[in-house]
Each structure stands twice: as structure tokens, then as C-alpha cells.
Amino acid sequence: MKPKLLEIMKKNPAEFTGKNFVKDIVAGIIVAIVALPLSIALAISSGVSPEVGLITAIFAGFLISLLGGSRVQIGGPTAAFVVIICGIIQQHGIDGLIISTVMAGVFLILFGVFKLGDVIKFIPFPITVGFTTGIAVTLFATQLNDFLGLNLSSLSSEFIPKVITYGQNLDKINFAAFGIGLLSVAIIILWGKINKKIPGSLIALIFSTALVYFLQKNGYCTDVQTIGSKFADLKGGIPVPTLPSFAGVNIGALIQPSITIAILAGIESLLSAVVADGMTGDKHNSNQELIAQGVANIVSALFGGLPATGAIARTATNIKNGGHTPVAGMVHAVVLLVIMIVAMPLAKLIPMSVLAAILIVVSINMCQFREFAEIARTTKADFVILLLTFVLTVVFDLVVAIEVGMVLAMFLFMKKMSETFHINTVSKTEESDTYKYLNESVMIYELAGPMFFGASSLFVDTMRSLNMETNVLILRFKNVTMMDATTINSLAFALDYARNNHIVLLCSEVNKETSKTLKQYGFEKNVGKNRMFNTIEDAIKYANTIVDVKDEYRKGKENAE
């Protein structure tokens, strides 16, 4: 456990005093203002009551800053989890969600303990763009119910059935709610051009809420749904941690959604931390960040909260407003706690279409269609991976998308890697000072690139095409970068093939790592240590000697006959 907070306290405690401390407090307050409407909106969109989003931001946000491996990471509920949470609640209920989140927290801690933080960052960029944009599209679809004022009570968590249901109920659009939603979107977009400090989502929330309250007081827009009309029992106090009920819950069925939450939380938090590093010049601890995310998710779930992860937008807001230590994230959580206790009753007045408008803007900002176009201009393989991940995320779910995307990416990567391995055949005709003394019956195979299972078939095919007039074959390993068990098996085939055809096999310039591998598999012993050479020149001299001896033996035999 090496939290960034303790690291800073140990190396430079002055960062927590004076102006620096004030900057962190100010940044924390501003981030809390940004997080307030988002946390409420994300909770409602996930199918739970508004205070659950604030509980998540408070407990998870505080712990992610306290225990995390990043200076400025801000944690809390994020839009990426909305669709996943809705699906879990529909299938397994609230208790199922809590158990899944706790299990996901355990997985995240294990990821960090076993130092898988760097491995998660190896997920290809096309996959990241594909599932991020897929999540954005599905999030957009979930908001249309409240944005259009349809007030449909039973909606499928799956994208296509949901869109079909919308199409069948377009005649039920509440144009007053729709107008409030459009007004809110306009305010969010236009306010960003006027003031960068105060978030447009907060201005839209306050203005639209006041407008609807005034109209409803005077008998207008009474059918515009608000938080109060949808959630009668809002709680503003500090919740008591409770254990979920395991009765009727299939733990086995919760393993996949738990892994989904853990993978997504890990990817999002580390992506956010990388973005933060680029903005601050600092370097985060990936594995510590995963451990912190795991602890935060467990605690959040026990207090009735949602899955949480690092939030890129809130983290960037923190940095831009002067936050430079984990104190800012902790302050943001405390400020949200105060707001929850004091002002939660006022949340009942907020129109549902305003919250939907906020998340629609979030989903549009999440879409990475520019990256889509850029990747489309690179290679067909990358674009296929991107498109497949996007479609699978929208139609099925994130885990299926990542699994299929990763498998396809690995196969395409192996294909590319196998294409980098090549064999250059050298004979007496080669014009080179190195090979000027090469005998006509000596053949050299210059091996270059990674020798792994993807390249073994090329090596075997080349061996089978070997000229039978050859007396000695030299395998030159100078440019071989790596070797695996399949390749060793191919080398064993080459040795047997050479012996069966009365060809002597020599090896030259085997690097230290490759030599170790050959020894471990017994190949060096089978070839003969005296037939392993440090330079190609020594190998050629030895090969020429063998040819000379063979020629003398053949001539002597012919004379005897």
C-alpha cells in the first residue's frame, strides 16, 4: 500500500500548507459543484434514487483520493456504468447490484496486488474508442425516456428493444418536458462559452428547476415529471452500512457482471490517471490506484452506493482549478456530504428532463467519432476491431465487446508479428565480404524477427524446400529477437530433416537469451556444442572443412571403385 497522499506527505509536506492548501480546498468545492448534478442524474438513470449517486460520490470519492495512486484523481459514479447497473438491477435486484459491486471491488484489489495495472493499459486504442463510444450511444438511448417526457415505466435494458419501444410511443411525447430538456441542453452548451469556472450543468439545473417550479405554481406544466413526483421518499442523512440479503441471489450468475464492473472501473480509472499525468507532469501508481478503486467500491456498495471509478471530466476540472494533491478530492467528497444533509429536500423540485439533458450532453461528449474517422484512415484491421467493439457494446454488453475485440486484436497482432519474421537464403552467389569464402554446397538461412508459433510454419516450409545438393546448413540467429516452444519444436524438425538427408546443421550468433532457451529445451545438446558458433565467419570455416572432408571421402571412394 503506497497511497500518493502518504508519498507526498513524506517527501514534501509543505504542499499541504498555505496557498497550496487553499488551492486544493477551492478546487474541491468547484469539483463538488460539477459532481452534484451528475451524481444525481447518474443515479436516476441507473434506476436508483437520487441520493444513491451522492452516497457513491461521497464515500467512493473520499477513499479514491485518500488511498489512490494519483495526485488529482476524482472518483465517483460515471456514465459508463449506467447501462451495466440497469441490467444488473433488472435481473438480480438491488441486492444483486450491491453483491456485484463488492465482488468487483475484490477483483480490483486482486488486480492491484498482482500488479495487473500495467497490463490493463495494454488494451488497444481501437477497443477503447469502440466501447467508450458504444457506452455513450447506449447512455444517450437511456435518457430519451425522460428527455421526451414519455414516462415509460418498463423499458428493456437492451438497446434495440428500447429503441423499438421509443418508436412505438412517439405519440406520447410531453412537449413541455421536451422543451425544458432542449432549453437545458442549450444552456449547458452556451454557458460553456461564457464561463468556464461554473459548470453549465449546474446553471441549467438551477434555471430550469426554478422555471418549472414557477410554472407549476401557476397551474402550467403540471404533467412535467420531477424527482419529487418520481421519488417520494428522499433521504438526506448519512446512511448506515448494511450487508445485502443473499436470499434468492445466484452468486454464480453475478460473477460476469462483477468482472464487467471491475474491468470497466480499472480501464476508466487508469485512463483518467494517464490523462491527469499528461496535464500535471506527475506519474501515477497504477496498481495502487486499482487497490484504492477496489476498496472504494466495496465501501460504496456497503453504504448502498453504486460502482465508482475515476472520472476524467471531474479530474480535469480539479486540475484546471488548482487541485494538485489528494486533499482536493477529499474536500469534494466532504462538500457533497454537507449538500446532501442540508439541501437534499430541494432536489425534489428538479425536473427529470433536466437531468436527462445533462446526461445527453455527457454522452455526446463521450462519443469519439473523430477518433473513429482517424482510425478508419489507418488500417482496415484496426477499423474492423473498432467497429466490432462498438457494435457489440451497443447490441450486447461491454464484456462481450472487450473479449471479442481483444481476441481479434491478438490474432491480428500475431499475424502482423509473423509477417515481420523472414528468412534470407544465402548461397555462394551472394556478393558479400562475409560470404566470399562460402562453399557452393553450404547454405545459410539468415533468420530475422520474432520466432514464435505464428512464424514456425514459414520456417518448416523453408526447410522442406532446401536444396538436396546442400552438404551443410548454417542457421544464423543474429537478428532473432525471441523464441517460443513451438519454434523450438520446428528447430527439432529441422535437425531431424537435415540428418535424414545427410546434411550437417550448424548454428551461429545465438544471443544470450535465445541460447538459454535452446539449452533448456535440449536443442543445443542435440545439435552438439561444437556446432554452435559465436560468429558467422567461424561457422563458414567449419562448414567448408566439413565439405572438404566429404569431398575427399567421396573422391577416395570413387577411386577405390
Q: How many separate structural domains?
A: 2
Q: Tell the overall outline.
A: elongated
Helix-residue proportion: 55-70%
Kindly report how far apart the N and C termini lie. Answer: 83 Å
Count of extended strands:
7
Biggest sheet architecture? 5 strands, mixed
Helix tally? 23
Radius of gyration: 32 Å
Mean pLDDT: 89
Structural class, judged by helices and strands? alpha/beta
Q: What is the beta-strand fraction?
A: 5-15%
What's the topology here?
Layout: H1 4-11, H2 18-45, H3 50-67, E1 75-76, H4 82-113, H5 117-120, H6 125-147, H7 159-168, H8 175-194, H9 200-217, H10 227-230, H11 255-280, H12 286-302, E2 309-310, H13 312-320, H14 327-343, H15 352-366, H16 369-376, H17 380-395, H18 398-420, E3 422-426, E4 442-451, H19 453-464, E5 472-483, H20 485-500, E6 504-508, H21 512-520, H22 523-527, E7 532-533, H23 536-560
Parallel strand pairs: 4-5, 5-6, 6-7
Antiparallel strand pairs: 1-2, 3-4
Helix pairs in contact: 2-3, 2-13, 2-14, 2-15, 3-12, 3-14, 4-11, 4-12, 6-7, 6-15, 6-16, 6-17, 8-9, 8-15, 11-12, 11-13, 17-18, 19-20
Notable characteristics:
2 domains, Transcription Regulator spoIIAA, alpha/beta, five-stranded mixed sheet
In brief:
The protein is α/β, with parallel strands linked by helices and 561 residues long.
What does this molecule look like?
The protein has 561 residues and is an alpha/beta fold. It folds into two domains: 388 residues, no CATH class; 139 residues, 2-Layer Sandwich (Transcription Regulator spoIIAA). The protein has 23 helices and seven strands. A five-stranded mixed sheet has the order 3-4-5-6-7. The protein has a two-stranded antiparallel ribbon with strand order 1-2. Helix 20 links the parallel strand 5 and strand 6. The longest helix is centred in the first third of the chain and has 32 residues.
